[in-house]
Amino acid sequence: MRSDIEIAQSTKPEPIDIIAEKAGIDARYLEHYGRYKAKVDYGMLRERSADAKDGKLILVTAITPTPAGEGKTTTTVGLADGLVRIGKNVSVALREPSLGPVFGVKGGAAGGGYAQVIPMEDINLHFTGDMHAIGAANNLLAAMVDNHIFQGNSLGIDPRGITWRRCVDMNDRQLRKLTNGLGGMTGGMPREDAYDITVASEVMAILCLASDIEDLKRRIAAIIVGYNFAGEPVTAGQLKAQGAMTALLKDALKPNLVQTLEHTPAFVHGGPFANIAHGCNSVMATKLALRLSDYVVTEAGFGADLGAQKFFDIKCRAANLTPSAVVVVATIRALKHHGGAKREDLGKEDLAALNMGFPNLMRHAENIREVYGLPVAIAINRFPTDTEAELKLIELRCKESGVKAVLSEVWSKGGEGGIALAEEVARLCEVPGKFRYSYDTNLSISEKIEEIATKVYRARDIVIAPSAVKEIEALERLGFGDLPICVAKTQYSFSDDPKLLGAPDDFALTVRGAKVSAGAGFIVALTGDIMTMPGLPKIPAAERIDVDADGKISGLF
Question: Catalytic site residue 342?
């Protein structure tokens, strides 16, 4: 069996000019990064006719993640190729991978098998430099904060009240907590600090939510870097950092154009983590794809309780997007994991465990239909170990629940293996939906958190820690009470306890903190123990990656 990278390297890409022509992108808007990838100037989106009709937006999400894997990106790519095979005009809108997971344990984000975007080595590594630009802009702001204090601190920034952290696009636990500014009088002001991984930076969230370069600059100026000695917020705008930061990001803001293995146009742009931020690709890439295609297939990170919820309540609200249909991806192996099967036994037929894990799948599907009012299909991402009895059981249980389950074989067959799913999704796109958000932003911060917890997670109630109560009160006093909520929560459970699998409902969600991402335009509600700087595993994926004398990379997957 060939690896993902071997499959990708055996496919001859089409020159990016041909892909751009297929997508309807005029050559004057194309900025080449080699032969097979390019950026699209944002002027194209600005100059497109205001009355141009947008295509139908299809979201691919998944059940609660497990170590067994679900294959959300693979299904997204395969579905797009399947739609092309049934005669539709399609493009894909995906997130960019982070180097942290690529060299760590999770791997890249270019799909898998015969449903990938290429050139996968470039996409999974430096790509067009967007991650580095985001990190540089983030760290410029951090440097300007500390320099302002060193040079006299006219804004009265309290060194103990600095909230802006430096970042690096790598899993490095050594940087989680540190003391900097050492080295005597010329070394800066000594203080405790910390690093985040780049995809957790608010700059990443801002880039993905900005509608144009002016909106990007406005959002950057609104970033709160900390508080002064009077407890008042200090912004990047007060430090006069927005112009230089926007200059660093001006090219990163432009969507990246690549292709699938079957040469379907793919916009890969931005990559915030869904357990920390909103977990969706950029608004600009999605809108550009919608202007160019009749159908746009996109994804949101982790399970539907995280990525899809934030896609609907944050991204769609900010960008005025209305999805047409949703696909929830599941695997037999993952459902058995939720049903209590041991990891080493997931390849064995176990109908009892499958039945026990099924409610997790239905919880996600019900949320899409009942909370957000959208039509939904189930994609069963087939593994070689799946038995016919298991597949039939899932099909029957889904039918009894009023949702159609479609077998997806895109990993092994590419677009051909996604034709059945494509036909069902195309049908759903014609079903009238009544899209709605899960909460009204006019509610208080606590009420909005409670709406998400009880409607989407099915929590019994919420418990807000005393320190979080004070933080929420302060945010509302400062005028941030009408912002949407971005819950920072474990991806492994509907609850804030990663060990609570399946579809729990008799639990209380504990909110331990709240902070504002004023530039991104949302309140972050902190639950559980969320890590914004991951560490490498005992045997990191980096140990398997190599490059030969001709520059050919191996071991990336």
Answer: no
Q: Cα angle vertex 556, ends 262, 100, to 5°?
A: 110
pLDDT per residue over 148-163, tens digit each? 999 999 999 999 999 9
Give backbone dihedrals phi and psi of 500, rounded to 5 degrees, phi first. Answer: -90, 95
Q: Which residue matches tokens 């959300």?
A: 72
C-alpha dihedral over 288, 290, 294, 296, to 10 degrees? 100
Active-site choice (39, 56, 72, 219): 72
Give CA–CA dist 67/501, Å, rounded.
Answer: 12
Q: Is the pLDDT of residue 11 over 80?
A: yes
For 207-255, what is each residue's pLDDT tens digit? 999 999 999 999 999 999 999 999 999 999 999 999 999 999 999 999 9
Consecutive H or E run containing 125? none
CA distance linking residue 200 with residue 278, whole number of Å = 10
What tokens does 323 get? 């999805």
Whether the Cβ atoms of residue 208 and residue 287 lie closer than 8 Å to each other: no
> What pLDDT is recorded for position 530?
83
Query: Among 103, 127, 411, 480, which one carries the catalytic annotation?
Result: 411
The pLDDT value recorded for residue 109 is 77
Q: Quick one: pLDDT at residue 47?
A: 74
Any bridge partners for residue 84, and if so which? none
Give the pLDDT score at 189: 82
Q: Is 480 a catalytic residue?
A: no
Q: Write down the catalytic residue from 39, 95, 287, 336.
A: 95
Catalytic residue among 274, 285, 318, 514: 274
Whether pLDDT at 289 is above 90? yes
Higher pLDDT, 426 or 54: 426
Query: 235, 308 in Cβ contact below 8 A?
Result: no
Identified catalytic residue from 383, 480, 522, 557: 383
**How much of the chain exceeds pLDDT 70, in percent?**
98
Catalytic residue among 61, 64, 66, 74: 74
Based on the residue annotation, tell me whether 106 is a catalytic residue of this protein. yes
CA distance 93 to 228: 41
CB of 258 within 8 A of CB of 14?
no
Q: Are residues 304 and 62 in contact, defined by beta-carbon separation less than 8 angstroms?
A: yes
Is 274 considered catalytic here?
yes
Q: Is there a catalytic annotation at residue 499?
A: no
Q: Which string of DSSP letters, residue by residue, matches 258-284?
A: EEETT--EEEE-----TTTS--B--HH
